[in-house]
Amino acid sequence: MNQEDYFKRMITRRSYEEVLEKAKKILCIQPHADDADFGAGGTIAKLTRKGCEVVYVILTDDRVGTFKQDLWPERLAIIRVKEQERAAEILGVKRLIWLNYRDSELYPSLELRGKLIRLIREIRPDVVMTNDPWLPYEAHPDHRYTGLMAAEAVLFSPFPHVNPEHIREGLKPFYVPHICFFFTHRPNTYIDISETIDLKIKAILAHKTQIEDAERVSSLLRAYGKEVGKNIGVDYAEAFKILTPRHLHVNPFTENL
Hints:
It is built from 9 helices and 7 strands. By secondary structure, it is an alpha/beta fold. The chain has one domain (16-245): LmbE-like (Rossmann fold, 3-Layer(aba) Sandwich). Strands 3-2-1-4-5-7-6 form a 7-stranded mixed β-sheet, with helices on both faces. β1 (25-30), α3 (35-49) and β2 form a beta-alpha-beta unit.
């Protein structure tokens, strides 16, 4: 590829549907139980139906996600695990990894980044999926820093001298071809989930501690999916920003891709 073609590729807005459609293994890094189900549940169900292996990594313990004062955080954390296990089963996700950082208290650290780099080198995914840390006005630190740490891990996982202890233990550096952000305000890819919208809703309703009015939530999910679907002329869709690692460092064009 010559320089002109390289820069043209870097600044041209692209659609990456084939990235997800062809993926064999996806590592989905989410702040809390249910975030991936809300942000990408229809797509995940669609992919697992086709044989794609999806691994969930949940960074926090979900101990504070309630307005009920009589539901103690230790009890809630246990319930949330069961809810996510049930939702994952509905979507066809068979492996869940819990890192158990305290809910609402997640902040960037080399320890966390190293754990994610280790998982990338162990699992060797075609795509890392996570929430977009650059979503405007996002006040929740768990969301901001999950996406940021996942992006850093994607960027640094190919470098053998980043967390070199992994290499000495027998792991190999790994270049993740693509990172896929959900909950994004600048999507470049839309996935038709018309055939899996019902599974997405069923999975989300499995998070009973988070749902006060199941009928209202179902209606909102359908309305949102239908609105996103208008972008590609389908009944229901989900929106993503898909990038390569080269877009994650000193690239002024990434915002508009």
